[in-house]
Each structure stands twice: as structure tokens, then as C-alpha cells.
Amino acid sequence: MASFSSHIKQVHRNNVAVLRRSPTLEIAGALGDLGTLLPLMIVLAVNGSISLSTTLVFSGIFNLATGVIFGVPLPVQPMKAIAAAAIASHASQRETLAAGSVTATVVLLLSITGLLHWVTRIIPVPVIKGIQLGAGLSLIIAAGASLLRPLSWLYPFDNRIWAIAAFLGLLTSLRQPRIPYALVVFVSGLILAILQVVASDNSDSSNRRLPSFRVWEPYFVLPSWTADAVGMGIAQLPLTTLNSVVAVNALASDLMPDLPTPSVTALGTSVGIMNVMGCWFGAMPVCHGAGGLAAQFRFGARSGASIILLGAFKLVLGLFLGETLLDLLHAFPASLLGIMVIAAGLELAKVGQSLNHGAPDLWESSAGQKKHRDITDGQREERWTVMMTTTAGILAFKNDAIGFAAGLLCHAAYRRWGRPRQNRFQDPSDEGSPLIRA
């Protein structure tokens, strides 16, 4: 208990210090994951698969809790496999919530028993990097396919011109990282959405309205564990375990090595608790995600203060506006959301560049200090092949589990049939190495 209290105090000091040093970037970073959150949350709410107000309230509370406890910009985002299946099948609210509770229960049990930590310890780093690279490229492909492709040139509130302008702004922010890109894009999109709603409100063909005051009224929902709901939950398990726990743990360590990295057990427990609580009240099934973490980091977030601010904002919206926000959110320009998703995907895909220099398994202790281990050209080729095989499986089949299995098989093939008389991952400088003996 004393160590936990000390950890919370340390996290709080860092959150306050970072927020005071760069408040604008922390606010901008908090908005970095909107490109993933808004499209799925809006469609699910419009279809009646979740409650928008309850989702905002509970996800806001979860943002506050993770910011205080973990101290890193850890996202709270939709469970994508469940969201996609629920949208495609127009699943009822009870079925969607049941799917989330199935995933959460399994992940929570694996975390409490320690099995999740054991599983993640034996997963090769190139496979983890492949999952991260595949997730990043998947975000980019999804942005082009579902958000940017349907756009026209002439529609005034959402068109390809806005997308090009947002992309040019993104390129500018690469050279000027202090520019709060996500904040500028969000405010611009909000203004365009308001103008579109106002314009449609004056038209006889639409009944869209601006948000109005409406106090949240919580209610209890009994999930319906049908075969389809259980199937959606099981399909989400590989994505949650690999991308929301394993990849997030590795990515947090890569991006913010000076901050305490949330353990896989803590991340899995967090995912389980969030959904065991929220899925009984109509909240969208949520998880953490490597893509969201990369996006929030890309746009300036460097501490838990960013998602604490986001959580407070979502909590206020859910408590006092709720479902009245649907028209405004539905009008948010897809052109701007699409570019934000592309930026998040690029940031996540960049993690693959540290595969052969800087990856966690290439560091070793020597005389009380961490030393980077040199590897041969053959070892680099093997690691690259394993990573790309994992990525290819994810992109080709649009399934993290298939990519994960393909990467493991590739890794096993190298270990089983590749140069059996020599340890391929042995440091040539070690005493007794075949290179030394030669």
C-alpha cells in the first residue's frame, strides 16, 4: 500500500510538471485518438448498439483513473473487432454489451492468475513489433477506405480540399513539433460541424439539431449472451491481448523510457475492470490500444495529465449533453478525422524501425550497466522477416490472431531449422562463441 501511494504521488508530480511546462501540447495530445474514437462511437450510438451518454460518462471516468494511476497518455478506445461486428450485423445493445463482458472476463482472469504475464514473456519481440506495424498500417488503410475515399471536391463542409489542407498541416507539424496540430484540427472540425448542423437545421430535408442541456440518467442493462455475442467477444480476444496489452506495454517503454511502464498484468486488469463495470450500464466496450497511445504521443501528450483533461471533458459532456451530441458528432468532417487516423498509423508503424537497434531484447546488463548487443546481418534478416511475416498476416487476413500465428511459426522455423549447430542469437563477443574460437 505504501509503495502504491508513493507511485501515485510520483505520477501526480510528473503530471503537474508536464502540464505546467507544455499545457497546449498536453491538450492537443488528449485529442489525438479522436480519429479512432469518434467514427465507431457515433455509428454504434446511432444504431442503438450503445448509449452515447453512458459511454461518455464511463470512458471519462476511466480516462481519469488511468491518468492518475499509470501517468502515461494511455487511451480508452473502442474494442474494434466488437465494434466492427456490431456495426455490420446491427447488433442490439444487449448483445454488444455481452460481447464486451465476455472479452473482459477472460482478460481479467488471465491477468489475476498471472497467465497473461507468462504468455507475454515468451512472445518474441519481432512478433510484437510486427503486431504494432500491422496495426499502424491497418489504421492508414482504414482511413483511406472508409473516411477519405467517399469524399467529393465540392461539398462545402467535408471534402477532399479539407483533407489536403489537413495533410499539409500534418507535414508542417513534423518540422514544427510544438504546433498543437490535433487541437487545431479538432477546433476546425468542430466549427465545420456546427455550420453544417445550422445549415441543415434551416433546411426542410433534415432535422439535425445543436446540442442542448440534458442530465444523464443511468440505467441498468442485462447483457444478452447469445451465440453471436459470445462469438464477437471471442473474436476480440486476440486483438485485446496483443494490441491492447502486449503492444501497449512495449510501446510505452519505447516512447517514454523515463516513465514507469504499465505492466501487462496491470493493463489486462484495467481492461477487465473497465468493461465489467461499464457493460452493465450501456457503455461501449473499451480497451487500451497501441494506436491510440501512438496518436496521443504524436500530437504532444507526454503524461497522464492529457487524458485526465480528456476524461473531465467527456464526463461533463456525458452528464449534461448526452445523446443531444449525436447530430453534431455525426457532422464532424470525415476528411479531418481521416488525416488524424493516418497520423496515428504512421506514428505506430514507426515503432518497427527499432527492431534491430534499440529493441528490448537487444539490451543486456554488463557490469551493472545496460549494454546494447550487436547482432549479425543474418540475425537482422531473420528478425526483419519474422516482423514482416506477422504484419503481412494481419494485413492480408485483417486478423491479428492470424498474423500473430504466422509470426510465431516463422520464428519457430528459424529457431528449429536455421543453423542448428550455432546459437543464432549469441553475442559474438561472448567467450566460447564459435567466431571467437575460430
UniProtKB/TrEMBL annotation:
Keywords: Membrane, Transmembrane, Transmembrane helix
Domain of life: Eukaryota
A single GO molecular function term of this UniProt record: molybdate ion transmembrane transporter activity
Membrane-traversing stretches: 30-50, 56-76, 97-119, 131-148, 181-199, 259-283, 304-322, 328-349
UniProt keyword annotation of Membrane present: yes
Record's signal peptide: none
Pfam families: MFS_MOT1 (PF16983)
Protein name: Sulfate transporter
Higher taxonomy: Eukaryota, Fungi, Dikarya, Ascomycota, Pezizomycotina
